[in-house]
Design a protein that fits this description.
With about 475 residues, the protein is mainly alpha-helical. The chain has helices at about 1-10, 20-35, 55-70, 75-80, 90-95, 105-130, 135-155, 175-195, 215-230, 240-255, 275-280, 290-300, 305-310, 335-340, 350-365, 365-385, 390-400, 405-420, 425-435, 460-465, and strands at about 85, 155-160, 175, 260-265, 285-290, 345-350. The strands form three sheets. Strands 1-5 form a two-stranded antiparallel ribbon. It has a two-stranded antiparallel sheet with strand order 2-3. A two-stranded antiparallel ribbon has the order 4-6. The chain is globular, with a radius of gyration of 22 Å. Residues about 1-50 have low confidence and may be disordered.
């Protein structure tokens, strides 16, 4: 499959950048139709097609894979399981009932590996040959983002041997501990590459960088926040070291506000629709807002609710309860995230940085620093959709002070983060890691508990003898033990 997707990316025309995102749809159709890995051979060669791509052609292909991974089906699945959303039609009901199959996650796996990682590695190799450390650094960050999602959902995954195409169709799996160590190393290398002198670069990314338009300072901030994220991810493995390392990375990153955020970007044109808008537009009523989140926001008079939710049939904000798969009279996801004019979706934010800072300081017993970061986190999360200052002040007065035991304060931090990082992947990982907020599983699910991982992808089980096969979605990943 990697070869097929590389073929598509090789034919990307930079003068037709507005059509980039249609390739993700082509990838999905291609990947769902056949188990390519079984049939690709070294004799498969088309002399009418180019055999290499330029860095400006490859970079947007990788970034689109990041967009699809972070804002597509994986984010919907996570949102259903942590009760941001409720499935009310077709396969979304199955996912809400915790039924997820090894062929149901094929497209996600292949977008990460065959579209994203294979091309990211191609950029890294070409950048080394051409003397283009800026391109290499951005590709390394995108690679880290992609393999990070893979290990978060599948635990042991291909890493060092991944993305080599026909050179290795059966890559070895590496432990999650090794993969996360590799992520940290790669991000450090990326920061170094992005800090090199401009004169050391034979070619420099600009408009072909769909995320930051070649702004190295924003990419460096993104890398440091990713390092903090994966340091904090290990809170169950080593509470003190994970907190200390997370804080060190946040300090080095020097985030100053939402202007530093990293977004998935969409133009609103026909082939470049926001992933959530495209889904809602094509599959209306497959997903509704979940009562767990909506009721939590109503109870706090949260001013973001009109951004998160559309009014229901009666003009109110309501959610469909867990275990109810038929009520479609409730609120849908709001236009701020899923409307035709929503051209950005958050990937890495100042609010996340501050919530990590609050949690890490709390774990180290630094209550004053935890409180300061908590206030800044809520403020940043409110500022993102543009809540007015008076409403933010009122919310902080009522809910912005950490109190009670350390466990109580952690619950406050994670509860606010759960709401703030709406549509993102992190609330699911945080819930697995901390069991916060407390969620009551569906009683009509195919299993008694919310899944804590994805099953092994079908083609990997069938055709990769080196795959670590796990079918039980109650088997926890390494950092969750």
């Amino acid at each position: 499959m990697e070869q097929a997707l590389t073929f598509l990316s090789n034919n990307l025309n930079l003068h037709k950048m507005k059509n980039i995102k249609i390739y993700i749809l082509a990838f999905a159709l291609l990947l769902s139709s056949t188990a390519c890995e079984k049939y690709v051979s070294k004799d498969d060669f088309n002399p009418n097609q180019p055999t290499s791509s330029t860095l400006p052609t490859l970079l947007p292909t990788v970034e689109v894979a990041v967009f699809a991974t972070y804002t597509g089906q994986i984010s919907r699945t996570s949102g259903l399981w942590i009760q941001h959303f409720q499935g009310t039609d077709q396969q979304m009901i199955d996912i809400s009932r915790y039924e997820i199959t090894e062929n149901g996650i094929q497209n996600d796996w292949n977008t990460i590996y065959a579209s994203g990682i294979v091309n990211a590695k191609d950029i890294i190799t070409k950048a080394d040959a051409l003397g283009a450390p800026y391109y290499k650094g951005i590709a390394q960050i995108c690679y880290a983002m992609l393999v990070g999602v893979a290990t978060d959902y599948w635990n042991d995954v291909p890493n060092t041997q991944a993305g080599l195409g026909v050179a290795n169709l059966t890559p070895q799996y590496e432990t999650q501990e090794a993969v996360i160590t590799s992520i940290q190393t790669m991000l450090s290398e990326a920061i170094g590459n992005l800090q090199t002198a401009t004169s050391a670069n034979s070619v420099i990314p600009a408009s072909d960088d769909l995320i930051h338009n070649g702004d190295r300072s924003l990419w460096i901030k993104a890398a440091y926040l990713l390092k903090a994220r994966y340091s904090n991810r290990l809170s169950q493995r080593n509470a003190t070291t994970s907190a200390t390392q997370a804080l060190a990375n946040l300090t080095a990153g020097g985030w100053s506000g939402n202007a530093d955020n990293t977004y998935a970007r969409f133009s609103g044109a026909g082939n470049e629709l926001n992933s959530w808008y495209a889904f809602e537009n094509q599959r209306g009523n497959y997903i509704k807002m979940n009562a767990t989140l909506v009721n939590k926001m109503i109870a706090k008079n949260d001013p973001r609710i009109s951004f998160y939710c559309k009014p229901d049939n009666n003009g109110n904000f309501t959610g469909t309860p867990v275990d109810d798969y038929a009520d479609i009279s409730t609120s849908s996801i709001g236009n701020y995230f899923a409307g035709p004019d929503a051209t950005t979706l958050p990937l890495l934010t100042f609010a996340e940085a501050k919530f990590i800072e609050a949690e890490a300081n709390l774990r180290l017993g630094q209550s004053a620093a935890a409180q300061t970061a908590f206030t800044e986190a809520i403020t940043a999360a409110m500022d993102y959709p543009g809540i007015d200052a008076a409403a933010v002040s009122a919310y902080l007065t009522n809910y912005g002070t950490l109190s009670g035991s350390t466990a109580d304060q952690l619950a406050q931090i994670m509860d606010e983060k759960y709401v703030a990082l709406f549509t993102q992947l992190e609330p699911y990982h945080d819930w697995r890691r901390t069991n916060l907020p407390v969620l009551n599983p569906a009683t009509t699910g195919v299993q008694a508990t919310i899944p804590v991982r994805f099953p092994t992808e079908q083609n990997e089980r069938l055709y990769n003898p080196n795959a670590v096969v796990v079918s039980n979605t109650t088997t926890r990943v390494w950092w969750d033990n």
